[in-house]
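Hey, can you fold this one?
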Amino acid sequence: MSNLLSTQPGKPSASKRQFGAGDGWSAGARAQVGFNTFPVAPTTGGQAPAATTAGAHMTPGTPATGHPLQDTRHNIRLLDQENEIKRAFTDIEAIMVDVGGAITGEDAAERIQAIAQARLGFEFPRDWLNGSWSRPVNVRRLFAYSVFKAFEKLAARKFDRQYAEWSDGESAPELIQKWGFHAIDITPCADGRLSGVVDYILRVPPTVVTSRKSFAGAMFDVEESVRCWADVELRRHREGVPNAADEPTRYLKIGVYHTSSSDPSHEGCAAHGSDERQAAQALLDRVNAFQQAVENSYCCGATVATLLIGVDTDTDAIKVHIPDAAGALSLDRYVDNADMFETTRSMSREQAKDAIRATVARVAGVADNDAATEGMRWFAGYLLKNNMAQIEYVRAYHDGRYPDLGHTERFITVGDSFDDVQMRNLAYQAQMETVEEGAADMDVGIKIFKGLNIKNDLPVPVFVHFQYSGAVPGARERAVARGLRLEQAIRDRYAGLVSHKWLYTFVSVRDQAGAGPIEMIEGAEFNTNGKCSCSCQKKD
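Sure. Predicted structure:
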């Protein structure tokens, strides 16, 4: 069985970005615009755009010879979303160049504020704009704050994620329950190239994803995952949500690791030294430990289903490790969707779906009509079908391979996840409640941003975010306290970066029940009082 992950030649392309070595823009930065200057394709108003010249990174339109399982309408929606998100950050750079030119003079504060109001749609905190020739306005902090406000605006935008709720005219959540799963828990690596794993790569309906938390190397906390499972099962028993507890469905845990087919030795998972097999094995061990923990801790046949997925972050093609008849996973038993895409591209839509199902059954080592494995096999086929539309998306709008093969994340986010704004390389995401438990994840993120931002004279924006339930008395106050406590711990751990004005932190909370707006909490950046904003208490 030839299911080895194929590698294709390709050349990484770096995105050159610069920011001033001092508090304002450097001369080099003024001359070279570079922050997130990615090509943006014209939006189409819902109509398929016309093709442009060959070689453009985001060629509009789906080729006439596209794959039979492509989803043109959904791809156009996702393209418009991607473009809108990219524009929100791309504009910041040019604006900061103008801000950097307005940081001197008696009316500097007024001129900077006017630029912010007119072009960014918000004002900077007034006391941040008080500068002099010896202590100029800290443009790095203004830049980091602008990145936060841009994301805040995108979160308030509430992108429509409902298209994934349907699959070939049928309700996807109902299909997934029919296949035997009442909840899906997805754990990807914290790498920003997996930031779009739910909406783009897998295209799973958000209503069935009960948890999506990212960790460096996807090394999730087993005990916390057991608690998430128990919460879901308790609601089934008490409320019949998402379905009654006596229905024969299971909780599905999906672990997602990644590699780079263009440069597997350097652009793979940083937490595992870009060793794909090591990343996959470590995650498989963790997924198996979670399953065993549930079975050992609870009675009455309690168990969960598990699935392992690898992503080629250059093309978004996945390989799905198919469980055998006993439900066991193996690193060497999988369907490579890049190969499957090529195998089925000349077929009709129904032929392609049949070919996927037959291949999944063959890899699982069971008959096409095996009742015991049918649900998992059909779900795996559903993921492969969805991902073929994503492979076509990358082919249509990114020439088949992303131009930014490596890291181009805009910021680091820690705490709880932001799920309603998704895009590849949007953020490095490290879910944690304390630095102690997430130190390894955070260290990997800082290492990435030292090469990505600081090396190119850009500051590192870190967003600390926690959700709370408005139905629980005092929940907001506790979320705020957790956020401020984690913020200070991060600043203490990376005190050198803070004191040298490389790292900036912002705290926010949100009521998860009402899906309301992000509420910014004035933390350390707003309370420096002329002192260094880490705990060393030096003068700023």
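The first strand starts at residue 166 and ends at 167. Let me know if you want another pass with a different chain boundary.
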